[in-house]
Amino acid sequence: MAKQQPLVLLVDDEPDLCMLMQMTLSRMGIKTHMAHHLKQAQHFLGEYHYDACITDFNLPDGNGLELVKYVTQHYPKTPIAVLTAYANMEIAIAALKAGAFDFVSKPINQQHLHQLLQKALHVPVVDESENQLALDERLLIGQSEAICKLRASIRKIARSQAPVFITGESGTGKDVVANLIHQLSNRQEGPFIAINCGAISEELMERELFGHVKGCFPSADEDKLGLIQAADGGSLFLDEISELSMPMQAKLLRAVQEKKIRPLGSDKEIEVDFRIISASHQNIELLVQQGKFRQDLFFRIHVMDLLIAPLRERQQDILILAEHFIEKVCAEWRIEPKQLSTHAQKFLLSQYYAGNVRELRNMIERAITLSDEQSIEIEHLQSHTAQQNIEFNLSSVPTQTPQALAATDAVSLSTSPTAPLSNAKLPEEGLEQYLEKVEKEVLINALNQTHWNRTLAAKKLGMSFRSLRYRLKKFGLDTEDEA
């Protein structure tokens, strides 16, 4: 059976422009209807089923934003794009915020129109139950109100081409959410390119983003494809975008706004089709007010926004996530599944989780490594240093079921009289990094004392050889297997 020809509604009061678009779409195998004012477009939408709609912003009896809101409300599965005057980004952003799938600038660029329609006609239709399962399988796990709202927002945002800005503390999973938006969008067949803007020096950032041509600087012995161009047809995720310098922000703005880049040393511009998803743990609006982040770039990337709640505000999800990590890690390591004791569950619910989900995962991996039995206890969850400084008061919490634990208040922690926390100097780098630094120093000291005999080092440290191997691998200290 032949595939039905797509039908698109064109809304513009300029007959010549409508005819031009109609001829362009006809060559793409797309049938079109033309409407020249708002009321006529609304009538056609009620009479026919359209696969997509393209509307001009200025109409004789209204504007394109009104039609966007009308279509979004009454025909939410019909993608609608807006025609805007060249470089009028305020209208384009307003249209995207109102629910438009995308926009295309006048004068009409046939390549851009072709790309827009290709994506509009291939919006993935996913069953809600399958969509929910896909989200869960990608680690958006939990039953809290915050995580349920996040799932709903991702499903809605994934359907459009609008830039997305993700806010959340370190370790909340901003990269996971960005990847989910890509995987559930019509760009899922394209690449997902992620870059941490805070992990690359300023002098290298331009080369990484825009690429370069051979010979443009002494060590450039071949052409290099930039990450923006590598994201062509897909999504570009810029984590910690607030770390970009002001000059780089200006160059990025132009690339995002015009969808064109110029590699270092090249005299040619390259058109690139990508969706930008960005994230930061910092307050970008405050940085804009302080003059540390460009306001025009902020408005361009901050069209659709998502806030990921910290784990301490999702206490209902802590044990669910912990059980998931236990199952996953044990499966990856091919060992028998372990279980959290009741006291261990209470301990997990009492933590602050400055490192959020990432910190919880690290705690679970460490506990599985240290536990030689099937049960995970408190001492397996605490680091050696933490056990010396913090005494967990079990007697203050009555025994409850795991389900009831999620609703209890945080368990009280009492400080040891030999090391009062109120007077202790807090590590500037944060607790997790400080503890890892201490742990690494202890490991190296034990290895040096045993001339790097790992079996003897494990005995000196009072741990299993497997536990030592895990820690050495964690810190990049693992060497060849001993004979």
Automatic annotation (TrEMBL):
Which Gene Ontology MF annotations are present? ATP binding; sequence-specific DNA binding
Q: Which residues carry this modification: 4-aspartylphosphate?
A: 56
Q: SUPFAM superfamilies annotated for this entry?
A: CheY-like, Homeodomain-like, P-loop containing nucleoside triphosphate hydrolases
Per the database record, which ranges form the Response regulatory domain?
7-121
Q: Where is the Sigma-54 factor interaction domain?
A: 140-369
A biological process (GO) annotation for this entry?
Answer: regulation of DNA-templated transcription
Q: Does the keyword rRNA processing apply?
A: no
Report keywords, A-Z: ATP-binding, Nucleotide-binding, Phosphoprotein, Transcription, Transcription regulation
| InterPro entries for the chain | AAA+_ATPase, AAA_lid_NorR, CheY-like_superfamily, Homeodomain-like_sf, HTH_Fis, P-loop_NTPase, Sig_transdc_resp-reg_receiver, Sigma_54_int
The cross-references to PANTHER family, in alphabetical order and at most eight, read: RESPONSE REGULATOR PROTEIN PILR (PTHR32071:SF100), TRANSCRIPTIONAL REGULATORY PROTEIN (PTHR32071)
Designated name of the protein: Sigma-54-dependent Fis family transcriptional regulator
Which organism does this sequence originate in? Acinetobacter lanii
